[in-house]
């Protein structure tokens, strides 16, 4: 049985959205929720992870990173580094993560085996928020994951409303699972209360989806020092027992809120098949933003440049050996719009073009921008929920690497947008012919 690392040691320092990140250092540890498709040496990896990233000190220098899992099972007893390597800076703030060492468990020898790469294994990337308050990470052969810094617990003098989208999994395309929603989060010492939880499914025809019956509110958690840093365990206190007799014991959800306000949640499902009444999302977790206090200027949102990832959720093998998923580093927004963009979708005032990089190789781009084989039309902002776009449309061009149809197609989606330390973030979720697609973008200009 796989058990989560949730021991509470005490409450760390406090922070809230927009708080100065001067305390952040060049080496930062991030909490990452489980994303289906994560594996190590061909073996699925369940449960949350941490990423420790030391950025390059300057031009020509290299930083370092490591990916760590936290499991209690027959093969692992707590923290275990599974990948380590070097960090180099590319154009527009994108980081390249090259794996130089992999650590995997061998069923043949019953021990952990180290594989060293004399030439770093390429295909890993990261996009960090200013001040290293969080961001997005993707290692070679793994799906993209949102990450949040966990040096401090959140501190909200008054409850903060968050809007989120689900991190989809192989079962997410169903009509009964939460796809997006909102929640009010308040703190009192180490106690964290989640109230006014609103959950909705995706609508296949666009617009607001059906409301899902959420967990009874308030949901109470506690923030303190865990294996992942200062994270919120929900529910709290947590009791782990040996289920025996075919019973199941629900693991806790783990929630992290970075200093600039980025929210990421692991909803406790892991890869062990245990079920849990999620506090926020469906899928395997959630990524969210503080709701803006004023309506956004949508033209400014789509007029910015972004870096991020496009994640196509698995279409089979739920929590075992997922299949059909894809994850590609992406760029959206151009300083000079390529002429072929119009072949993907007709331009509107609420549309932003972007796409992947040829051969997933941003370093080969002469200007740091990728292809124009994707487009997102946010449509109008919701009249009562600032930063929420319920009528978004996504166009996938025929040239996009994961477009198996080899022709242009479109599908309805929802989006949440806001600012983190004065930069826009945009998270979009939609479904196309039974598969969910998540787009995670952070402003790069």
Automatic annotation (TrEMBL):
Residue ranges of the region described as Disordered: 36-56
Name of the protein: Uncharacterized protein
Organism: Paracidobacterium acidisoli
């Amino acid at each position: 049985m796989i058990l989560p690392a949730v021991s509470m040691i005490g409450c760390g320092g406090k922070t809230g959205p927009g708080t100065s990140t001067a305390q952040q250092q060049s080496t930062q540890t991030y909490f990452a929720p489980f994303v289906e498709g994560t594996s190590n040496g061909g073996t699925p990896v369940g449960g949350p992870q941490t990423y420790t990233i030391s950025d390059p000190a300057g031009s020509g220098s290299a930083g370092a990173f490591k990916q760590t899992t936290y499991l209690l099972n027959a093969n692992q007893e707590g923290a275990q580094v599974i990948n380590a390597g070097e960090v180099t800076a590319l154009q527009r703030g994108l980081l390249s993560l090259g794996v130089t060492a992999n650590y995997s468990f061998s069923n043949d020898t019953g021990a952990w085996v180290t594989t060293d790469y004399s030439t770093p294994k390429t295909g890993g990337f990261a996009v960090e928020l200013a001040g290293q308050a969080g961001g997005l990470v993707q290692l070679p052969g793994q799906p993209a994951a949102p990450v949040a810094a966990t040096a401090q617990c959140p501190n909200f003098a008054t409850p903060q409303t968050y809007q989120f989208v689900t991190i989809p999994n192989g079962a997410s395309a169903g009509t009964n699972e939460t796809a997006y929603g909102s929640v009010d989060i308040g703190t009192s010492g180490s106690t964290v209360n989640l109230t006014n939880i609103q959950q909705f499914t995706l609508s296949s025809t666009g617009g607001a989806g059906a409301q899902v019956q959420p967990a009874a509110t308030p949901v109470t958690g506690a923030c303190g020092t865990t294996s992942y840093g200062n994270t919120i365990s929900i529910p709290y206190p947590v009791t782990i027992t040996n289920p025996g007799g075919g019973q199941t014991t629900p693991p806790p959800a783990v929630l992290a809120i970075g200093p600039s306000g980025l929210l990421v949640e692991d909803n406790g499902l892991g890869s062990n098949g245990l079920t849990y009444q999620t506090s926020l999302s469906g899928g395997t977790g959630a990524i969210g933003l503080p709701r803006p206090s004023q309506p956004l200027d949508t033209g400014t949102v789509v007029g910015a440049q972004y870096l991020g990832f496009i994640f196509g959720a698995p279409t089979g093998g739920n929590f075992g050996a997922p299949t059909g998923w894809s994850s590609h580093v992406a760029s959206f927004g151009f300083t000079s719009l390529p002429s072929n963009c119009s072949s993907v979708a007709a331009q509107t005032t609420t549309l932003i073009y972007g796409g992947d990089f040829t051969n997933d190789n941003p370093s080969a781009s002469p200007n740091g921008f990728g292809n124009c084989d994707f487009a997102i039309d946010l449509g109008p902002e919701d009249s009562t929920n600032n930063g929420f776009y319920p009528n978004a449309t996504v166009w996938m061009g025929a040239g996009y690497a994961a477009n198996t149809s080899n022709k242009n197609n479109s599908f309805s989606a929802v989006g949440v947008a806001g600012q983190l330390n004065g930069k826009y973030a945009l998270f979009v979720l939609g479904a196309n012919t039974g598969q969910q697609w998540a787009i995670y973008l952070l402003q790069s200009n």
